[in-house]
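Assess this one:

_____
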Amino acid sequence: GLTSSVFYDLAVSGTNLFAATTKGVFLSTNNGTNWTAVNSGILFNPPPVYSIAVSGTNIFIGTHYGVFLSSNNGSNWTEVNSGISDLYINSLVVSGTNIFAGTSYGNVFYTVNNGTNWNSFSTGLPPNYIRSLFASGTNLFAGTDNKAAWIRSVSAINAITISIKSVIQGFYNPFPNRMNRSDTVRAYLRNVSFPYNIVDSSIANIDSATYNGNFAFSNALSGTYYIVLKHRNSIETWSKSGGEILNAGTSSSYDFTSDSSQTYGKNVIRVSNTPVLYAIYNGDVNQDMIIDASDV
């Protein structure tokens, strides 16, 4: 019953064996003695299917048209791609109640509700083809082209993740409008009420060209927080008055560069008019919150 001799993946669901091939999905109910094509509902039937993952009675397949779900052993498939921006799905893996999908362009997405919605889980990954995903304990491993294997804790799903944009004054070069180097910055989440206790912190690299760094806060619950940046020789800089509403399990962004009003007390310096760009003050070598002769 097989019309393809190229297998990409195999998966078992109860007594059923599923094969992902260049000509779609095949099902065997007798340990491979006979096979039946089960591709109803899959776009461009039958497309190459690159991966299969089983979660309870749900079966997920990865194609270059996205993820499809069947809850009736492949009799019918439904497209489940809400939130996936890169539909070239090469690998799927199940970790507990979470399903992860790896793509051709270095993205990983996850769902906690059987594909109803997907969220990005790509922080830290290079833009390389993801060949495989593997879950072990609380860790997810990604095997990529050229850049070896990558690891991230699955617990980060429940983290507050923030893409923070910030320029460090002394590193900025107006020609060609970038920093001379990337550098690490620690970001804190502080309560918005006195005494503004630190709730969590995270370290990330601020890219010299994009000015972005991706920070994950695994210990903070959903709430309203000040975002505070601390660099090794810069003035500590807080987000604007009132704080930011941040939700666990979702990604947010914050831009310290777009306007002085983005910082508490307008505590930034304008370093470019075209484009308009603000930077955090640096030169506070001894980290006493003042830039003076003692920093020389």
In short: The longest strand covers residues 183-191. The chain has no helices and 27 strands. The radius of gyration is 24 Å.
